[in-house]
């Protein structure tokens, strides 16, 4: 039978390890398959920094690409070099001249019927009009005016022949009218006002702006802009070791890098590139599993939690590869901080930081300006983790988002100042991708709910909701067992303060403390904190029956918690808050009254298990100390100190803390916190009165 049990255990362990290996290999294969396979430029460099690598010479002839700023300036110059195109509308002049003649005659007859100098006035007026249309009338385009002058150069197209002119040599309607007014000052016999009035009604621009042709010429000019500025010959020294990366050398290095990564000149073997990626990803993810095995064995042995972590890691790297593949305008649109937020809220800060650094480092091999990318994402991820270290309210989500964005902006300014050396050259339009990334990071919170349901983990968000005393189960506890509820609140305060000081999940221990005694709701009157002075129901029971009722609150609590879908991580506090200690009061009473009777000691012992984490260990101590402190007749500093020391020593003697990672130094800190907090508490614990025996009640 023993051999059979050992074999089953052996195969179970082997199967578990095989599953982990399969999950690891699957994650590695998926990540490697989706990563870009282009060969990467092996040098890291920054403008304004010293070139720390060997002398860089050109391995072939290549053109130096213009920067975005240079292309933008060239485009601006090309557009400015194109003159607006105008054409003559041949219909305007004849039409307006004929209309002028008719209008002149009608108005002259109505206003000057007896005048005999019509011919002279008409000849002068029609002469002005013909002169204006012969030279050309134009309406100036505000788009082409300059600050210094309203006039600008144009191309006048006539009979498919273009002529360059300046609008200063042409008439506008207002300029033509002003010219006529000036000339008429010399003619005293003419009807000046009449001539100007009729002329004004027939001055229409006959030079029309051809927007389509102008746009076509501008587009051609932009298309003819060269994307390159100069050539680098094969064997030419680009930069020497120790030289500062200047603007000019930076452009050459950037052009070489693009040629290296985007063309087939140095493509190498894709199989070798894939092998290199496989080595790097395998090493990184293996180190992650080693971290889990050494520091978070509870996660390592849990299939679902380990699968969740590998899924988050793979998902982020797949998103990065997709962004590179579609040539996203900025990789900083990707919400990289979603990884540390999810891992922090589902697990802890140390694991979140470790995984975030691992994912960012892997990504750094495949993104442009890898060092800058790594710096941005690691600092922002650290801000995300630190800002939600103690999650107490939902407003911290927005505070966290603000701090992440602030970290991005500060990092951006620092890097920009290093690159540009000039505040005015900072590219402020590069900030919006960071803003969008932070907004997308808020998707972590609905994703956490999905992961909780899929993988059976519990986030701080859920713990925060459970720790609300308006939770239906806690309200039921407060109604049915008010003394137990008050006891649980005090235990929560003690345990939370202690775990916060020695390090641990304060929200988890508080939630566990609030629920650790919910099993007492099934029989509240059998527990001393809920008893009234009228009587003690234990007086009617045997010691064995009393012990069973007291012990049963653990199993009842587990049953109630599972029925109300309380997470397992909280139920662990119910299981372990008494460990496997004895109900000593009833045990000692039985021995005193029946010294010769043979009995099973397990009747008086809690089922266990013993606490297995800092949080569960601290809760056990807080529960025992708070309950026992109520029995002090005249609590003072000495009695409280002796009580705390005695209870902690007793738990250690009973080996209740052996599976926790609480150190002796932690215990001293915990004791000091308990003593300080109990100084302000004054609760007299009612004693059990069974068969005339008076004693300090058992902590239950």
UniProtKB/TrEMBL annotation:
InterPro entries: HD/PDEase_dom, HD_domain, HDIG_dom, Metal-dep_PHydrolase_7TM_extra, Metal-dep_PHydrolase_7TM_intra, PgpH_phosphodiesterase. Gene3D superfamilies: Hypothetical protein af1432 (1.10.3210.10). PROSITE patterns: HD (PS51831). Keywords: Membrane, Transmembrane, Transmembrane helix. Residues 484-628 form the HD domain. It holds the Pfam family 7TM-7TMR_HD. It comes from the Bacteria. CDD domains: HDc. The chain crosses the membrane at residues 18-35, 272-294, 306-324, 353-376, 397-419, 431-451. This is HD domain-containing protein.
């Amino acid at each position: 039978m023993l051999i059979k049990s050992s074999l089953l255990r052996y195969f179970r362990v082997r199967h578990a390890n095989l599953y982990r290996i399969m999950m690891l290999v699957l994650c590695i294969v998926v990540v490697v398959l989706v990563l870009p396979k282009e060969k990467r430029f092996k040098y890291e460099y920054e403008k304004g920094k010293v070139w720390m690598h060997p002398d860089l010479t050109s391995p072939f002839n290549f053109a130096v690409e213009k920067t975005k700023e240079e292309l933008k300036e060239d485009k601006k110059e090309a557009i400015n070099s194109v003159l607006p195109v105008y054409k003559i509308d041949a219909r305007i002049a004849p039409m307006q001249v004929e209309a002028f003649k008719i209008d002149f005659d009608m108005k002259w007859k109505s206003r000057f019927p007896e005048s005999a100098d019509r011919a002279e006035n008409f000849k002068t007026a029609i002469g002005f009009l013909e002169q204006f249309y012969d030279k050309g009338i134009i309406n100036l385009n505000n788009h082409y005016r300059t600050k210094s002058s309203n006039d600008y150069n144009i191309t006048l197209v006539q009979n498919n022949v273009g002529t360059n002119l300046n609008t200063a040599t042409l008439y506008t309607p207002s300029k033509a009218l002003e010219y006529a007014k000036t000339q008429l000052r010399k003619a005293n016999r003419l009807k000046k006002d009449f001539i100007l009035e009729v002329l004004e009604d027939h001055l229409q621009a006959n030079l029309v702006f051809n927007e389509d042709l102008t746009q076509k010429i501008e587009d051609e000019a932009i298309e003819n802009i060269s994307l390159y500025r100069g050539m680098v010959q094969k064997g030419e020294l680009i930069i020497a070791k120790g030289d500062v990366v200047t603007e000019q050398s930076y452009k050459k290095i950037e052009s070489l890098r693009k040629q290296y990564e985007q063309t087939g000149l140095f493509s190498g073997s894709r199989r070798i590139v894939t092998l290199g990626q496989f080595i790097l990803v395998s090493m990184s993810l293996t180190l992650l599993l080693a971290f889990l095995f050494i520091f978070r064995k509870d996660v390592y042995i849990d299939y679902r939690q380990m699968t969740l972590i590998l899924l988050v890691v793979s998902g982020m790297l797949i998103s990065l590869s997709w962004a590179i593949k579609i040539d996203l305008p900025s990789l900083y649109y990707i919400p990289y901080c979603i990884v540390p937020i999810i891992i922090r809220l589902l697990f802890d800060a140390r694991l979140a930081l470790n995984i975030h650094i691992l994912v960012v480092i892997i990504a750094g091999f495949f993104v442009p300006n890898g060092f800058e990318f790594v710096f941005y994402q690691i600092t922002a991820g650290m801000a995300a983790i630190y800002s939600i270290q103690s999650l107490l309210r939902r407003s911290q989500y927005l505070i966290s988002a603000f701090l992440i964005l602030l970290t991005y902006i500060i990092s951006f300014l620092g890097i920009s100042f290093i690159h540009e050396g000039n505040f005015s050259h900072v590219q402020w339009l590069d900030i919006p991708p960071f803003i969008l990334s932070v907004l997308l990071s808020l998707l972590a919170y609905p994703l956490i709910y999905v992961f909780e349901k899929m993988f059976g983990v519990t986030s701080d968000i859920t713990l925060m909701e459970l720790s609300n005393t308006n939770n239906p189960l806690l309200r039921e506890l407060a109604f049915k067992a008010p003394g137990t509820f008050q006891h649980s609140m005090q235990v929560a305060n003690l345990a939370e303060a202690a775990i916060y000081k020695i390090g641990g999940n304060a929200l988890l221990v508080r939630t566990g403390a609030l629920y650790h005694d919910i099993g007492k709701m099934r029989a509240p009157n059998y527990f001393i904190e809920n008893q009234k002075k009228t009587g003690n129901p234990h007086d009617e029971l045997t010691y064995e029956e009393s012990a069973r009722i007291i012990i049963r609150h653990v199993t009842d609590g587990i049953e109630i918690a599972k029925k109300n879908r309380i997470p397992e991580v909280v139920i662990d506090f119910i299981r372990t808050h008494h460990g496997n200690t004895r109900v000593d009061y009833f045990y000692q009473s039985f021995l005193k009254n029946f010294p010769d009777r043979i009995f099973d000691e397990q009747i008086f012992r809690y089922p266990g298990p013993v606490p297995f984490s800092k949080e569960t260990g601290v809760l056990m101590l807080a529960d025992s100390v708070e309950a026992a402190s109520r029995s002090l007749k005249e609590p003072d500093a000495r009695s409280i100190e002796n009580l705390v020391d005695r209870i902690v020593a007793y738990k250690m003697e009973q080996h209740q803390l052996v599976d926790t990672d609480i150190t002796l130094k932690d215990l001293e800190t915990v004791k000091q916190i308990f003593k300080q907090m109990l100084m302000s508490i004054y609760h007299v614990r009612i004693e059990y009165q069974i068969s005339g025996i008076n004693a300090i009640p058992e902590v239950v």
